[in-house]
């Protein structure tokens, strides 16, 4: 009998989940017990309360075989066998009617079984980074398929049967050998929001590309495409368009109709001019580097939304090199000066609402929302269209409380709230953010930090509370942050180091600068992972002799401690002064 300490059994009547660590499976096969989940019911358990396995995570092991016994897991909804050594998949996939998510990426699979088409509940399928030369036509029977990834294989075409996959919203086939995107397929995939067919052998864009009215991100870079069809104007939702490394010689005037476009990448083509009509766009990023441009239309100066304009590698004869290598704003100003006075007056004026709308659109694909420095007191509801964001930056505003919509962002990993006007601890929102890794609340007028304030975010790795008006509670719950690696308590009016900080064994960076510390606890020697310790601008007069070790001093910045007088050494490490005592 194989010992399976890594099986996680849930409470009765709740979904049963099995997950392994990368070293959990010492063999090349999946143990028999996995395929017989109901056998795990003990003598004292009620068999009618047992729940069959629904989620099976076997990623990052050395599995070479998935047996036909997989059919025994009829209630399986999620299967992840990515990053293994599989060369084929069993036909038993056709007997998993409840399967919704399948990840077989990063293996050595050469062919998918036709039976995969019988997994008709499939919503997400990732077969990236294998050795596939074709897809089974039966995949067209997966009518619920919404997200399909098959990047980095050797496919030359799609089966026409996939016209039936009309619910596709995300398609990633980067890094294959596709020579054409069928117009029949494009006509059926009208719900697509993201299409990545970069790094293929495509020579053209389908003429009916404009039927993808929901498309937000289109990536076709590094192909052999010689023209963008005028029908592109039909992609009215397009926010990101990547066409770098192709053979474009001209651009259609219809490109200027893409009113939501924020990023346009045209680098490394053969463009000789940028169309005047496209100067109406409200772009944030425009990459025209490595083309054959000899000049730019003065109308481009009206694109005041532009934050990044790349022009290197062009024979620009009508522009001074100092303008080309200078700031984007200086170049735009120069171009506006070349316009007739009446046209210059019509320059696009970007409103705050325009910038917010653009940030909201870009967040749908990037999963990151940045509203830094927008002088907001309230976050507009429209920015929360995407509930899958992993990073939100609301710093440098006047926000006093977090919007309730943020609680729907359960995948959020980074939340930056620096330099706002938060007075109350936003703990109620934190309880809805189980995946939060980085929290920055520095420079806020917080009145109180509750002692249990961090219990809702035990996975934090970075925490910044610097410059807050509130004092830390007598027993701050730092001890619950077992994974904390960076802690910033700069300018917190601290008179002593919080004792619970000394229990943070994974701490790498600790900033206690600009406080009123008079002593340093011996317990610092237990922070063996510490690489940076900032004690500058304090009232420390001496350090315990127990800390007088090279490994400790290499991490310390004790500059500007006016009472630290018994200096033994003063050296520079990585441009930062390190002070030692006798």
List the helices and strands and how they pair.
Layout: E1 7-8, E2 16-19, H1 32-35, E3 53-57, E4 78-80, E5 101-103, E6 124-126, E7 147-149, E8 170-172, H2 183-188, E9 194-196, E10 217-219, E11 240-242, E12 263-265, E13 285-287, E14 308-310, H3 321-325, H4 328-337, H5 341-345, H6 352-366, E15 368-370, E16 391-393, E17 414-416, H7 427-430, E18 438-440, E19 462-464, E20 486-488, E21 509-511, E22 532-534, H8 550-553, E23 556-557, E24 567-573, E25 576-581
Parallel strand pairs: 2-3, 3-4, 4-5, 5-6, 6-7, 7-8, 8-9, 9-10, 10-11, 11-12, 12-13, 13-14, 15-16, 16-17, 17-18, 18-19, 19-20, 20-21, 21-22, 22-23
Antiparallel strand pairs: 1-2, 24-25
Protein name: Disease resistance R13L4/SHOC-2-like LRR domain-containing protein
Organism: Ficus carica (Common fig)
Pfam family, one: LRR_14
């Amino acid at each position: 009998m194989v010992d399976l300490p890594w099986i996680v059994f849930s409470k009765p009547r709740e979904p049963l989940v099995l997950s392994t660590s990368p070293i959990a499976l010492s063999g090349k096969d999946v143990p028999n017990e996995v395929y017989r989940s109901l056998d795990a019911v003990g003598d004292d358990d009620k068999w009618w309360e047992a729940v069959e396995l629904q989620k099976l995570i076997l990623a990052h092991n050395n599995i070479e075989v998935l047996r036909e016994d997989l059919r025994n897991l009829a209630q399986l909804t999620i299967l992840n066998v990515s990053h293994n050594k599989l060369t084929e998949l069993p036909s038993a996939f056709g007997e998993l009617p409840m399967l919704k998510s399948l990840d077989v990426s990063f293996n050595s699979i050469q062919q998918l079984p036709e039976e995969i088409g019988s997994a008709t509940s499939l919503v997400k399928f990732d077969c990236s980074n294998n050795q596939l030369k074709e897809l089974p036509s039966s995949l067209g029977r997966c009518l619920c398929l919404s997200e399909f990834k098959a990047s980095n294989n050797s496919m030359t075409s799609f089966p026409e049967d996939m016209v039936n996959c009309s619910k596709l919203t995300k398609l990633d086939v980067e890094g294959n050998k596709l020579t054409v995107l069928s117009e029949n397929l494009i006509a059926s995939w009208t719900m697509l929001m993201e299409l990545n067919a970069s790094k293929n052998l495509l020579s053209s864009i389908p003429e009916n590309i404009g039927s993808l009215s929901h498309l937000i991100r289109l990536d076709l870079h590094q192909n052999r495409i010689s023209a963008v069809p005028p029908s592109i104007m039909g992609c009215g939702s397009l926010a990101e368009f990547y066409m770098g490394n192709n053979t474009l010689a001209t651009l259609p005037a219809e490109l200027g109709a893409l009113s939501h476009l924020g990023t346009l990448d045209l680098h490394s083509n053969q463009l000789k001019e940028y169309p005047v009509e496209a100067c109406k766009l409200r772009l944030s990023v425009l990459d025209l580097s490595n083309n054959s441009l000899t000049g730019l239309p003065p109308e481009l100066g009206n694109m005041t939304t532009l934050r990044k304009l790349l022009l290197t590698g062009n024979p620009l004869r009508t522009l001074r090199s100092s303008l080309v290598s200078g700031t984007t704003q200086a170049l735009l100003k120069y171009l506006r000066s070349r316009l007739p006075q009446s046209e210059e007056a019509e320059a696009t004026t970007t409103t705050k609402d325009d910038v917010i709308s653009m940030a909201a659109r870009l967040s749908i694909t990037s999963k990151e929302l940045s509203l830094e420095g927008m002088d907001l007191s309230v976050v507009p509801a429209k920015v929360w269209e995407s509930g899958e964001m992993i990073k939100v930056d609301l710093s440098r505003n006047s926000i006093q409380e977090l919007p309730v919509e943020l609680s729907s962002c359960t995948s959020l990993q980074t939340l930056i709230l620096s330099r706002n006007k938060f007075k109350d601890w936003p703990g109620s929102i934190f309880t809805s953010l189980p995946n939060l890794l980085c929290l920055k609340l520095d420079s806020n007028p917080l009145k109180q930090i509750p002692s249990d304030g961090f219990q809702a975010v035990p996975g934090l790795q970075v925490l910044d509370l610097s410059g807050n008006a509130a004092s830390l509670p007598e027993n701050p719950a730092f001890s619950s942050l077992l994974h904390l690696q960076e802690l910033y308590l700069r300018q917190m009016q601290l008179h002593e180091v919080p004792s619970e900080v000394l229990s943070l064994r994974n701490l790498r960076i600790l900033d206690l600068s600009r406080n009123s510390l008079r002593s340093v606890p011996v317990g610092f020697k237990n922070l063996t992972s510490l690489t940076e310790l900032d004690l500058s601008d304090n009232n420390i007069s001496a350090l315990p002799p127990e800390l007088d070790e090279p490994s400790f001093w290499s991490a310390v910045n004790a500059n500007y401690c006016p009472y630290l007088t018994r200096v033994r050494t003063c050296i520079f490490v990585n441009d930062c002064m390190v002070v030692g005592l006798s």
